[in-house]
Amino acid sequence: MNFRIVYNKKIDNSFIIRIVTFVFTVSLFFERSGNILFFYCSFLLFAIISSILAFNTIKNTMFPIILWRFILFVFLSGLSIIWAINKIYAFQMLIRLIIIAFIIIFIYLNNKKYDTINAYTFGLVAGVIINFLLYLSPYRSIYFEDPSGRFSGTLNNANSFSILIIFSIYFYFRYCIRKKKPKQLYFIIYSLVSSILILSTDSRKGLVFGLLLIIVCIYYMNKESKHAKGITLISVIFLIPILFFLIRNNEGFNRLILFFDFLRGGEGDQSTRWRVYFLIEGFKIIKSNFFLGVGIDNFQTFTGEGLYAHNNYIEILSDLGVIGFILLYSIYFHIYRTFKKSHAHSVDYWLLIIVMTMELFFVSYYFRAFWISIIYLYSMGSKGYSSSEQSQN
Questions:
Q1: Half-sphere exposure (CA, 13 Å, Cβ side) for 178?
Q2: What integer pLDDT is reported at residue 193 of this predicted model?
Q3: Strand pairing of 10-11 and 3-4?
Q4: Which pick of 41, 98, 267, 376 has the fewest CB atoms within 10 Å?
Q5: pLDDT tens per residue across span 15-45
């Protein structure tokens, strides 16, 4: 079916779903009480349009294994209400996971038929640019920083913001290398903007893994160029002094130093001490509830309302036991196998490693943008983007 506008001109469905995907992606950056209405309206529009288009697509589509495993994970989360210590926590999280399941199903179907990966990429980039402009705003400290002075922009959590930026770096890199003439300069400029924002969040994981991903992307982008050494040298000369100037007085960098001080036997910072406490409590929970856990989102019943493990592995093992853990992390194993079969780009593997390492330091299983990015990551591997890139380059 085709939508129609005035003058009886047909609009291609792919154009509509790409615009809707772009707007919805930008809305993922809007979580504050003063702007979340934009997300709700965008989500409603995305759900309606996707439902209409998916009706014809879903009949001839076989869901991939990773979708079925996520659905089973959601089903197990629902069952866990039976044995959950706090059934309200479990039920509220179940609703959230069901919404995520519908979103990623729509994302998969839309991308499979209409190729919406660029719309998602541009949406992430637009969200980052919007927040960069807000970072430069004189009202930054009033409206866009949390009580501790960490910049979170239009989101309500600085760590979530830094993770979204990391995904945007990856997807923009993949967009740049899909061009016949890879856009190194554009990527370097975007990397600089992204680095400034990551540093403004004071996120240690963002600082380490964001800069690592930028270095990896620049290396592989230049590796395929005839002027690789020259471009790499210019990139280093351009980026390193600027980043050094930004890092030397950065609170996130200071927190990272304190973390390493803790590993050497020092006191560390308060955040590190809390994480160690959560780790100890998590091991106690896992030991007593090894197979099925204590119920989805019930880790907080042992540590205090709103306090989570800051470690996705510990959180899942505590909430849903080893069964839930296997269900969730088998998704990553299947993505890896997909990459192997399709000869995926090396940076795809790097992102998978970075994601699984970052999950040692944050809880991702209920993060909407995280799962959308994972689905697109899988889709790129299964559609064999890398082979076409190699022929273009």
A1: 14
A2: 92
A3: antiparallel
A4: 267
A5: 999 999 999 999 999 999 889 999 999 999 9
Which residue type is seen at 12?
D
pLDDT for 237 equals 59
**Contacts by 221-230, CB closer than 8 A, 24 or more apart:** 221/173, 221/176, 221/177, 221/182, 221/184, 221/187, 222/184, 224/177, 224/182, 224/393, 225/182, 225/184
Nearest-CA neighbor of 91 among 102, 78, 100?
78
Residue 227 in tokens: 């002027």
- Core vs surface per residue 233-267: b (16+ CB within 10 A) or e: eebeeebeeebeebbeebebbebbebbeebeeeee
**Model confidence, pTM:** 0.89
Low-confidence ranges of the chain (pLDDT < 50): 1, 3-10, 386-393
Q: What is the pLDDT of residue 43?
A: 96
Among 73, 27, 22, smallest CA distance to 368 is for: 27
Tokens of 41: 């309206």
For residue 10, the cross-strand partners are: 4
Query: Which tokens hold the place of 382?
Result: 């299964």
Give CA–CA dist 66/122, Å, rounded. 25
Q: In the numeric block, which tokens belong to residue 327?
A: 């269900």
In this predicted structure, what is the pLDDT of residue 393?
37
Which residue's entry shows tokens 């899909």?
178
pLDDT score for 62: 83
Contacts of 108 (CB under 8 A, 6+ apart): 63, 64, 67, 375, 379
| Helix, strand, or coil (residue 146) | coil
- Per-residue pLDDT reduced to its tens digit, 142-154: 888 877 788 999 9
* Burial bucket for residue 50 (CB in 10 Å: 0-12, 13-18, 19+): buried
In angstroms, the CA 237 to CA 81 distance is 55
316 vs 81, 116, 277, CA distance in Å?
15, 31, 17
> Is the backbone of residue 2 left (phi > 0), alpha (psi -120 to 50) or beta?
beta
